[in-house]
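Thread: quick sanity check before group meeting

JM: Hey all, I'm pulling together slides for Thursday and realized we never actually wrote out the predicted structure for the chain we discussed last week. Dropping the sequence here so it's in one place. If anyone has concerns about the input, flag it before I start.
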Amino acid sequence: MNTIEQRIQKRAYELGYEKCGIISIDLMDGYAEKFNERIEKVPKSKFFYQNQERLVNVKEIYPWAKSVVVLTAKYGKYKVPEELKGHIAKAYLFDTRIDQETKEYQNNRDLEKYMQELGLKVETNQKFGVVGMRWAALQAGLGIIRKNNFLYTENGSWVHLEAWVTDKEMELKETNNVVKCPENCNRCREACPTKSLSAPFTMSPMECISFLTTFGGRNLPQEPLSKAFGSCIYGCDICQDACPMNKGKWKEEEEFPGLKELASFLTPDNILNMDEKFYIEKVQPKFFYVSPEDFWKWKVNVLNYMRNNYKEDYKKSIIAACDNENSKISEMANSICLELSLK
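JM (edit): ok, ran it. Output follows.
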C-alpha cells in the first residue's frame, strides 16, 4: 500500500505539479543561517528582510508542524503578450497565488483539501509562503539555487513555489539532474543594470528593479538607479533572461486566463491614463503588491519608463502629468520635463 507521502506526491503529479517533495521541519533550521548570512553580506538589506523573519521562526509560529510539503509549478509555458514583453516581469504576469480563475490556484486548493482528507493538519500562506520556500525546495531535491539566487529545475527558473507545513512526520525527497552553474559564468551579474547582483549568490534587494518597481521605489525622482531601469515598468527578468541555463526553457504554448484581454490596458500610455476604478477592479487584484492606495506608483513607474525610453510621442502625456493632482506623479513628470527640457 502506498504511504501517505506517496499518495500526496501522486495526487500532486495528477494535478499537474512539476515536482513534489516532503521534508522534515528540522531541515528548515539551516534556513536561519542563510537568512542571517544574506543580511551580513548586505547590511543595508536588514530593513527589507525584517518583514520575512517569520520564515525563520516557523517552528515558533507552528509548534505542531513536523514536515513541509513543497512543490514547483511550471509557468514557463504561457504566451507573453507582445506589448508586455520586457515591461512587466513574467512571474507577475502569470501569478496564480490569488487568481481563482487559474488552474494552478484551483490545484493548490485541491491539494490542500486532499491532504486534509488524509487526516493532516496543514497550513500555508498563498501570497508570501509559509516557510523559506527556495531553501525548502533545495532540501527536498526539487532543484538547485543558481548564482542569481533563483531556484532552477529542469525547466529553468520559470517555476512557482508552493509549500505547506503539516502535523505528521514525513519525508519523500525528489531527484533532479540540474547541473551547477559554470564556475566562470557571471552573465547574470553582468546583465543586472543596477548591480543588485554584486556577487554569486548575493543580492541587495534595495537596488533590485523588482523591489523598486513594486514594494519599494517610493521616491523615484530622487532615485539615481531609476535611470537604469531600462524598459522595466513592473518587476524585472533581466538576470533570468541572461542566464544560459534558461536558454530555450520558455515554451509559449498556452494562453493565460484573462491576460490577453488585459494586455492592451497595460501599455505605458494606457496605464498613465487609467482611472482608479478600472485599476481597482481589473489590475490591482492581479498585481497585488501595489495597493489601491498606491495606484500612483504604476503611473510614476510609467513616467520613469518614458524618460528612459523617450520618444516624441510621449511628450504630451508627460507634460499633462505635470498637473496631476497626485504630488508623486506631478513631481516625477516635472522632473522629467526639467531634465529633458520638454517645456
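AS: nice. Residues 267-343 form one domain. Residues 144 and 179 are 8 Å apart (CA to CA).
JM: adding both to the slides.
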